[in-house]
Amino acid sequence: MQVSVETTSGLERQVTITVPAERIDQDVNKQVQQQARSRRLDGFRPGKVPTSVIKRMFGKAIRSDVLSQVVQESFYQAVDQEKLMPAGMPSIEFRKDVEGEDLEFVATFEVYPEIALADFSAVEVEKLSAEITEADLDEMISTLRKQQGDWETVERAAADGDRLNIDFEGFIDGEAFEGGRAEAMDLVLGSNSMIPGFEAGLEGVSAGDALDLNVTFPENYHAENLKGKAAVFKVKVNSVSGQKLPELDEAFFARFGIEESTVEGFRAEVKKNMARELKHALKTKLKDQVFGKLIELNAIDIPAALIDREIDVLRRQAVQQFGGPDAKIDPNMLPKDMFEAQAKRRVSVGLLMQELIKVNKIEPSDEKVRETVEEMAETYQDPQEVIDYYYGNNEILNQIKGLVLEEQVVEHLLASAKVIEKQVSYEEAIKPAQRGEAAE
C-alpha cells in the first residue's frame, strides 16, 4: 500500500492511498467462493453453484462490498502509519477504480491541532466570595411566597407588582406593525417583560381605562425593523389583580418538600438551599472566567467537524430543554448560527483541557468524586440510596468523574495564576454572567 499526505489548508489533510490490485482480487475471490458454498440458486445443488455464475450475477455487488471494507481498513492503516489524528470522518474520492488494476483513492479530513500551552502564571483571575445575610434570606422567602401567591381582582388603581389583563396594538408612524398586537394578555407590573416605558406607563390605571403609551424600542431590540423606533401602543385595561400571599405555615412549607412546622426551621432549610446555590454559582463563574482566560492565552485552530458535532449536541439539548423528552421537533431546524459561538468555546475548552490533563497527568481524585456524589445526594430524601445508585451506574459515575476532572484542571490553573479575592453581595454572586462573559 502506498500513502502520500498533503496539507491543503490549516488542519485539512489529503491522504492519497494506493491499494494493490492483488489485494482487491484476493478479497473478491474469497467472497465469491464463500457465496458459491452458501448461496441457494434454482438449478444448482446447495454448495455446488459455480464461481463463474456467482461472479456474473453478483460480482459488482461483491466488489462494492470489498472496496468499502478495503477503503476503511487501508484508511486507518494509513493514518496510523503517518501518525495522523483525524478529527472527523473523511470524505472519500476514488481516483482510479478499474477491475484488475491498483485502487487509488483520496481521503480528505481534518486533524486535531497541535497545542503548545502558554504560561498561565501572568493571568489575573478574580475570585468572588459572598455571604448570605438575613436581608437576602427575607428576600428569598418573599420571592417564594410570591411564586405561590393567588391573584384576586381589585377595584383600585394598579401599582407595582399588580397583574393587569390588557388588550393592545402598536403603531409606528400611524401604521400597525407585525407582532405588536395582543388580546387578554396578563402582565405583571415590574416584571420588565415589556420594552422600557411600557409597564411604567400603566402604573395608576384602573379596569376599563383606555390610553396611548408613547415608547421607543431599544437599539438592541431583537427585531431589526423595530430597533430604535418610536411607537404608540393603544392599550385597554380589562382588569387589575392584586396578589394574596400565603401564610408561612406547615402547608406552605410542604409545597417545597420541607417537613418543618416552625418558621425558624423553614428559614434554616431555605438558607441551606441558598448556600448550595451560592456555592455552585461562585464555582461556575470562577470556572468560566478561568476557561475564558485559557482560550485568550491559547489561540488554536478548531476542526470544523468538531464544531458541527457540538452544534448537533446543543441543538438536541435545546429541543429537550424547551420541548421535553417527547418533543417532535427536528433539532436540525434550529439555526446553526444560534449555537456556533457556544460550540466553538466548548470545543476549544475541551481541546485545551485534554492537553492540560495529558501534560500534567491529572486524574480524577477518588476522594473528590466521593465528595461530589455525597453533595449531590444531600438534596434527596434518602442520600445513601442515591449514593449507592451512582456508584452502581458506571455511566453516571463517569459523568461525575468528568466534572471532578474539570474542577481539578481549574484548580491546577489557579495554582499558577494571580488570584484576586473580591467580596460581593449574594445577589451579585448568583446573577447570571452577561452573554460573552460565559458562553460555555
TrEMBL record:
Primary localization class, coarse: cytoplasm
GO BP annotation list: 'de novo' cotranslational protein folding; cell division; protein transport; protein unfolding
InterPro entries found in the cross-reference section: PPIase_dom_sf, PPIase_FKBP_dom, Trig_fac, Trigger_fac_C, Trigger_fac_C_sf, Trigger_fac_ribosome-bd_bac, Trigger_fac_ribosome-bd_sf, Trigger_fact/SurA_dom_sf
E.C. number: 5.2.1.8
Compartments it resides in: Cytoplasm
GO molecular function: peptidyl-prolyl cis-trans isomerase activity; protein folding chaperone; ribosome binding
Source taxon at top rank: Bacteria
Swiss-Prot/TrEMBL keywords: Cell cycle, Cell division, Chaperone, Cytoplasm, Isomerase, Rotamase
Residue ranges annotated for the PPIase FKBP-type domain, each copy included: 161-229
Catalytic reactions on record: [protein]-peptidylproline (omega=180) = [protein]-peptidylproline (omega=0)
Cellular component GO terms held in the UniProt record: cytoplasm
Enzyme class: isomerase
Family: Belongs to the FKBP-type PPIase family. Tig subfamily.
Domain notes: Consists of 3 domains; the N-terminus binds the ribosome, the middle domain has PPIase activity, while the C-terminus has intrinsic chaperone activity on its own.
Function: Involved in protein export. Acts as a chaperone by maintaining the newly synthesized protein in an open conformation. Functions as a peptidyl-prolyl cis-trans isomerase.
NCBIfam families (UniProt xref): tig
Official protein name in the record: Trigger factor
Species, as recorded: Nitrincola lacisaponensis
